[in-house]
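How it folds:
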Amino acid sequence: MKSSPLPADLADPLNAAAPRLGRFGRQVLYYDNVPSTNDVAAGLGDGSAPEGCVVVGDAQSAGRGRLGRTWVSPAGAGLYVSIVLRPDADVIPLVTIAAGVALTEGIQAATGLRTDLKWPNDVLIAGRKVAGILAEGTLRYVILGFGINVLPAAYPPAVASRATSLERELGRAVDRGSLLVECLSAFATRYAQLREGQRTAVVDAWRARAVASLKKRVRWEAQGTQVEGIADDIDADGALLVRTSDGTARVISGEVTWL
C-alpha cells in the first residue's frame, strides 16, 4: 500500500518539533484510508522499518481496539496512529502503561484538557472514553496503536453515553498537528525512561493519572469463574492488582468490567 504525502497541517508541526521527537519523527507515513494503521505498521515491522516509524491514517475501515472490538474511525474525525517499536523484552509489559501516560500528557499539552487513565488502555474525560491504546506484536516488534476522538463524529450515537471527543469537551477546534506532535513527544520521553531502566517513574506517573478509577470494584473471569474485587493498584510490570476475599489477585489480560 502506497502512502500519501503528509498534509501541511501535520507535516509543518512535525518538522518544527523534530528535535523533540527523535526517532519518532524521522519516518512518518500518512494514508488517506487504511483498514487499520496497526496492520500497516505490522507489515513494516516484519520488514526493515526502523524503530520509531509512525503510521498515520486519516480514516480506518477496520480499526480495532482490545479483544477485537471495533474502533470507529471516520475521515478527519480522529487521530489514528501506530508506531513500530523494537523494545527489549523487559520493556514490553509496560509499553501500554507508558503510552497511556504519554497520551494524557500529550492531550493536556495540546489542548489544556486533563484526562484520566483506566487500566489497561482507556483515556477518559469525566468517565467517558476519549482515546484508546492497542499494543500488538511478535518476537521481532511491538506495534503501538492509539486512537483519539477529536470530533464527536469519531464515535457512533450508540456509544455517546460512554464516549466523548476533545472538541466536544473544549467547545472549539483542535489542531491535529499539534496533538500528534505532543503525543509523540510525550511518548518519546516515557519510552526513553523505560529503555533506561526508569520503570518506576512511568508506573508512578500512571498511578497519578488513574486516581479516579483505582479503588473501584471490578469483575473479571479467572479459570471460568467470575471474580470480583477492588482494583487497588498496578505492579511494577503494569498488571492490575485486585483485592478479593481470597487475597490479592494479579490480572494481566482479558476482560475487566468496572462496576
In short: The chain has a mean pLDDT of 92. Residues 86 and 141 are 5 Å apart (CA to CA).
